Amino acid sequence: MTLQDKLTTTKRTHILNAAARTFAEKGYHATTVRDVARAAGVADGTIYNHFQNKYALLLGLFTQMTEAAEPALNPAALTGLHLRELLREMLDQPLQSLRGENYELVRVVLSEALINRDLASAFRTGLLTPMLAGTVEVLRRRGDLRADPEDTVRLLSSLVLGLLLQAALGDEELQETWAVLPDRLADLLVGGLA
Amino acid sequence: MTLQDKLTTTKRTHILNAAARTFAEKGYHATTVRDVARAAGVADGTIYNHFQNKYALLLGLFTQMTEAAEPALNPAALTGLHLRELLREMLDQPLQSLRGENYELVRVVLSEALINRDLASAFRTGLLTPMLAGTVEVLRRRGDLRADPEDTVRLLSSLVLGLLLQAALGDEELQETWAVLPDRLADLLVGGLA
Amino acid sequence: MTLQDKLTTTKRTHILNAAARTFAEKGYHATTVRDVARAAGVADGTIYNHFQNKYALLLGLFTQMTEAAEPALNPAALTGLHLRELLREMLDQPLQSLRGENYELVRVVLSEALINRDLASAFRTGLLTPMLAGTVEVLRRRGDLRADPEDTVRLLSSLVLGLLLQAALGDEELQETWAVLPDRLADLLVGGLA
Amino acid sequence: MTLQDKLTTTKRTHILNAAARTFAEKGYHATTVRDVARAAGVADGTIYNHFQNKYALLLGLFTQMTEAAEPALNPAALTGLHLRELLREMLDQPLQSLRGENYELVRVVLSEALINRDLASAFRTGLLTPMLAGTVEVLRRRGDLRADPEDTVRLLSSLVLGLLLQAALGDEELQETWAVLPDRLADLLVGGLA
DNA sequence: GATGAATGAGGTTTCATTCAT
DNA sequence: CATGAATGAAACCTCATTCAT
C-alpha cells in the first residue's frame, strides 16, 4: 500500500466517520450529503470522489459495522466456561460490542434495513447468519447442553436482538439494568422458569 | 355519529389503508403523497382534507396499529392455563396479531421509530409498556412460577421483539418454523437449558 | 326591491364586510377565500354564489370605497369660507373620511392598485379625477385665489395623498399630529414659506 | 475582494436585476421564482444559492433602492441656492432619482410595504426618516425661511410622496408636466396661494 | 484529487374553484 | 341558495449529483 493509497483510505474513513455521526444524529433520510461534507470538513463534491452516491455511504457504514463485529462472531475463547457463564457471555458480548458510536449506527442501519430488501439481506448474511452459525458450533461441542443447539441459538439470538431493539428505541429502564441483565437472564435460562 | 361523519371516517380509513399499502411496499420516505393519493384513487389535495401532512399518515397508521394490538394486551383469558401453555400463548399471540397487513406495517413504523424520538416514545408507551404491564400482572398471580416475574417478562418481551425483528428483516427460515416455534421455545424456557 | 333582493343584498354586504376585515388584517394575497368565508360565517362555496371570484371581492370593496367617498367629492358646502378655512377643509376632509375601517381598506386597495393596471385606472377615474375636478370648480369661482387653480389642486391633492401614504405606512408621529396638521399646513400654504 | 467574490456579487446583482424586471412587470405575488430564474437565464435552484427565499429577493431590491437613494439624502450641495431654487431641487431630486428602472421598483416595494409591517418599517427608517432629517437640517440653517422648518419638511415630503404615488398609479397628465411641475409648485409654495 | 456553484427533477403543500347533495 | 369535500394546477423550495476551474 503506497502512501497515496493510505491517504486515500484515510480520507475515505474520515468521510465515513463524518457520515456515521450525522446519520446517527438525524437519520439517513434527514441527513443531506452537504451535512456529511460539512461534518467531514470537505466540499460537497469531494464526497463523490470517494463514494458513488449517498447510498454508498450507508453501505460503507454497514460494511464497517460487520467488520467491527467479526471478532465477536468467532467465539473460540468461550470453550472453557460453565454453561451459565457461556450464556452470559453470549448475551453480553453483542450488547457490549455495540456501545458508543456503533450503537447509534445500528439504529440507522437497522432502520433502513427494515425497508430496503437488499440491506436487509446483507444484514442477515453479513451479521446474523455467521453469528448464529458460529454459536451453534460452540454449543454443539458441549456435553452439558440438554436442549437442542439450534433452538437454543434461535432463542439466544432473538433475545439479543430484542434487547438491542428495545435499547435502540430508548428504553431507559433497560439501559439502567444493562449491567446485570445478562447475569439474571442467564440464570433464568439455565434453571428454567418453573 | 351522523351519516356525514360515517362517510368522512370511511374515507379517512380508505386513505389510511392506501397509505399502509404504499408505505409497506416502498417505505415511508420513498413514498410520495401522490403515491398514496393514486393508491387511494383520490386527488393529491384530498389527502390534506383528512390528514394534516404526510407525517400524520404515519401517525395514523401507528395509532391503528396500537388499537389493533390492544386486545392482545389484556390477557385475561390466560388464567387457567398450565405454565408451559401460558408461555406458548404469550409468545404466539403477539406474533399472530401481526400477520397479514399489520405485519408489513410493523416494518414501516418500526423503521421510522428507530430514528424518530417521538415515534419511538409513542411506540414504547403505546405498545410495549402496556403489554409488559399486563403480562407482569398475570404472572404475579400464579404460584407455579419460580422465577422473578419482572425478569420473566423482560425475557419474554425481548424474545418476541427479537423474533419479530428477524421476521421483519425477511428471515425465511424463521417464518417457516413460525408455526411450531412458540411450542419449542416454551419447552426450552420451562425446563431450562441445562 | 323585494324582500328576497334585500336579503341577497344584505348577505353580499355581509360577505364584503368580512372580506374588508380579513383583507385589512392580512392583505389581499395572504387572505384565502376560506378566511373570508370563516369571517363571514358562511361556507366556502357561498362566496361564489355572490361573487364571481376572489378578485371580485376586491373590486366590490373598491366600489364600496368610491361610493363612500362620493359625498366628499362634491364640496358645495365650502362656498362661504375664507381661503384659509377652505384649504384646511380640503386637506382635512379626505383624511377624516378614511378613519376607521375605511382607512385599512385604502391600504389594501392602494397596494393592489400599485400593481394592477386596471385597478389603478379605476382608482384614478373613480376617485382621484372626480375629486380634482370638483375641487377645481370650487377654486375657480373664488376671487381671492392668486394662484392658478389647476396647480393649486395638484398641490393639494398631492399633499393629501402623500399624507395618506405616510399614515398608511405607519408613521405614528404623523398620526399624532393628525388633528392639528391641516391647520398648520393651511397656514403655510396661504402665507407662503418666504 | 477576490475574483470569486466579484463573480458571486455579479451573479447576485444579475439575479436581482432579473427580479426587478419581473416584479415590476407582474408584481411580487404574481411573479414566480421560476419567472425570475428564466429572466436571469439560470436554473430555479440557482436563485436559492444567492437568496434565502423569494422574499429575500424583495428585500434585496429594497436595499438596492435605499442605497441608490442615499446620495439624494445628503443635500449638502443645496446651501448656496435661493429659497425658491432650494424648494425646486427638493421636489425635483427625489422624483428624478426614481426615473427609469428604479421608478418601477418603487411601485413594487411600495405595494408590498403597504401590507407588510416589516417592510413598511424598513421603508420609513431606511428612506423617509433620513430624507426628512437631512432636509430639516438644511432648512434650519437658512435665514430666509419664515415658516417652521419641521412643518415645511412635512409639507415637502408629503408633496413628493403624493406626486410619486400619482405617477406610480399611472397618472399620465402628471408625467407630462413632470418637467415643469417642480418649478410651478415651488413658485406657489414660496409666494403663497393668497 | 478538491472545490462549490449550478442544475433541475421532484417533493410537499396550498388554495381558488367546482359541483353533487 | 347553501354547503364543504374534492379537485389538481401550481407554488416554493430542497438536495443529490455534475462539472468547469
From TrEMBL, chains A, B, C, D:
The keyword Cell membrane does not apply. GO terms for molecular function: DNA-binding transcription factor activity; transcription cis-regulatory region binding. The keyword Calcium does not apply. InterPro entries: DNA-bd_HTH_TetR-type_CS, Homeodomain-like_sf, HTH-type_TetR-like_transc_reg, HTH_TetR, Tet_transcr_reg_TetR-rel_C_sf. It comes from the Bacteria. Residues 9-69 form the HTH tetR-type domain. Pfam families: TetR_N (PF00440). Residues 32-51 bind DNA. Keywords: DNA-binding, Plasmid, Transcription, Transcription regulation. This is TetR family transcriptional regulator. It comes from Deinococcus ficus.
